[in-house]
Fold:
Amino acid sequence: MTALATEPDQTEVTSLEAVATSDVDHAHLLGVDALRPVGLEELVEYAALMHRTDRKYIAPIDTVRALVADLADTHRVLEIKGRRHTTYRTLYFDTDRFEAARSHVQKRRRRWKVRSRLYVEDGLCRIEVKTKDNRGETQKVMGMSDPSRYGLLAGEEADFVAFHLSGHPEVRIAELVPAAEVCYTRATLSDLNAGTRVTVDWKLVCHLETGDVWMDDSYALVETKGPATPGVADRALTHLGVHPRSFSKYVAAASTMTTGIADNDVRSLQGRVLHNRAVGL
Structure:
């Protein structure tokens, strides 16, 4: 485990039970407990979405609740062992010059992300490579990793990343280092007939060596994942007055806390939607 892959802050969270209770309350507030459930195997069968177009929206909690209600007839919510939300911990790797973050800020059509992801309640760990091609389509590949190797990029994990980034010769795997850890809770909705997904993330916090960045509790991040044509969820969000924006959890944190990375995409969010605290403050 890397220095960035930290244990939960015990000054803010006294027990895992407290976290679970808080997330159950939040899921209820968002209305996801009113949806019909779907299991993981069925979700993967009908909406695996390794090739897709992602659209991201930042919306007030009340608006997200209205969205979930609008989607109730067409979407089901992922349920695992009776739980309708999952805690994610994700360690992002980048060069020491934050090349992956800079490529996003500069809106290069071809770009990449490398991350180690831990699904906390399920004890499941994966190494992931996410790329975007010249047409703006996203491809994500995942390899299994032992939970004890969360936050590490070596051995089989490094080989996996090297293979799937072979089309990006500018990336040298040996130069990738831990850049930020992003933690949040997610509920996943899916329209199985259309083969699309909608994810809702809350309690978002990003840890960097220079400090922390977090999203205000009154907002959530919504992502739609599907074909290039906007789907039911995108149209519902537009009707609710919310429009897609360029946003990356990792890049938002990196640009906020790192000198020399333009923060144009998130500057309007700072102090209202996003908050930050430098190390030592």
